[in-house]
Amino acid sequence: MNRRDFLAGLSASGYVLAVRADGGSPDAPPPPIDAVKPAFDRIAPNGDKPGAVAHEPHMTLVKLSCDVFVAGGGLAGVCAAISAARNGAKVVLVQDRSRLGGNSSSEVKMHVVGANTHKGRPGWREGGLIEEIRLDDAANNPQRSFEFWDMLLYDKVVSEPNITLLLDTALYSAETKSGKITRVMARSDKTEHLYEVVAKIYLDCTGDSRLGLEAGAEMRHGREARADHRESLAPESPDKETLGSSILFTATKHDKPMPFVAPKWARKVTAEQLRMRKINAWEYGYWWIEWGGQLNTISDNERIRFELLSIVLGIWDHIKNSGEHPTSANWAMDWMGMVPGKRESRRLIGDHILTQYDLIGLNDDPFDAVAMGGWPMDDHPPGGFDRPDLPPAVQIKTAEVYNIPLRSLYSKNVDNLMMAGRNISASHVAFTSTRVMATCAVIGQAAGTAAALCTRYAISPRDLVRDNTRREELQQTLLRDDQSIKGRKNEDPLDLARKAKVVASSQRDDSPASKVINGVTRSIWKQETNLWAAEMTGKPPSIELSWEKPQTLSQVQLTFDTGFHRELTLTKQDAINKGIIRAPQPETVRDYVISCRQATDGPWAEIARVKGNHQRVNRLHFKPITAQAVRVEVLATNGDPLARIFEVRCYA
Known about the structure:
With 652 residues, the protein is α+β, with helices and mostly antiparallel strands. It contains 15 helices and 28 strands.
């Protein structure tokens, strides 16, 4: 068969290519545009009348059913919902505010950090959904707008046809029977709806463990005693104290002096109170404006808000009017948060409590590892700003990144309850590392994927851990979705590329073509590169996979380099933004062509041409074809002189 006949055959068979340059579902092309529009008639059906619930005569009851119910729309909840949906589960996501993102949203404006800040071992930036989101933000939001970050998260969620999103909706009760949740209730006073939701798996991503509280799940609040887990960093005696909350602000420089008059209730801040707290920039607030850990960060939230606002205004008054910072004269505050960025409250208890010894590597690597952390153990004095005699934080770095087990992501005593985010099963000491948002995001992806598998096979999360076959399927599914799990690599039996012969038109000595099927999709400083790299000079470089016998293919998945050695986050702080590229990452392949041929000496036929890519994972779906070889030809990068590909996968 010549090239013309081969292409004619593709045309006759109704050949269709669908490219997911955002990761997307591994088993399906992107949905048609009409399938993306939310089903508003489902969440606010016409004709329903209030009064179905006797004690709420003005509220309309709406009954919903799904596979996975997610409470909480921070990064953990967003990633849990998307990962569950992309893996085939029907999802209902409720968020008690009008914006997604939690502490990363425009209501708080905290930049997302995680294992990528493990300075001793560059290259551990998280993959998966949080990387997909970060890359979209960097490419499409060079102006560093948190409102556009909010919209990006909203777009990600509403673009998944398997997700029903309920904003401004708060969970308020759960019914259980025989150790399982049977239904939950949520309410939206803005729309006057009550929602009764029945699901198979329920996921608590509320941070405050509100779903677990209503379901009667075992939980902890505060700091354990040193003897409880033999943790050297724990206090000698247990207490109910936690990390406090923070309120941030932003400021802008003007072309004339800008006055500021503080309200009477603002704190009077002195230089002595700031001797351990640096005022080193004006454009972005200070995380150390923290208060309330000595109280209850849930029930005392209103008092905490007031005190934080009084401290913020007092610090700005000190900056502007004390005479100690004359360069602030032309600066004016243009935004101040009204939602305290909460760090800690309740933690749910699972089959495994993550401790200091898990993080520092003195316990065995968990057999059920599903996510990765790497932020230091970062403890703060509960009194926060009211303890000027103490440093605002004490950070103890771990020697390596660490894995988080699935056993810490489901409830010990409620069979179908899972959790993701800062409320996972961890001691206070371990929590001080796992609480940061990039880690919460990858935990959310792990929990959402596990929940989808539980509903697919009608098993509980505990059953999933105990079933070797299903547990390994979960880990391989996560890796296929670019989740970062330390020490695990692609061993997917469905990946036909693993059995292929790989050659390239050219390659660097330390980055041969064979690396694209070694199962590892990141390079760590001073270790193996784990990718194919070739010079972008002369004829476009290409890499080819071939088999002894023709294979049936309908999907090719590519993983590109997106500069994991760099930090990548949205921040208003100029000092942090200096090393961040607010654009497509230069190492990433931008334009490429995929071709295939049916026989060893047959003609090459182009099956895909992609332009303008900035994502790390690209999935290309097409109707099944028979091919003995597949070739990827790199036409352009986003600026780097090398073509770089970490992995090529092929599926029937």
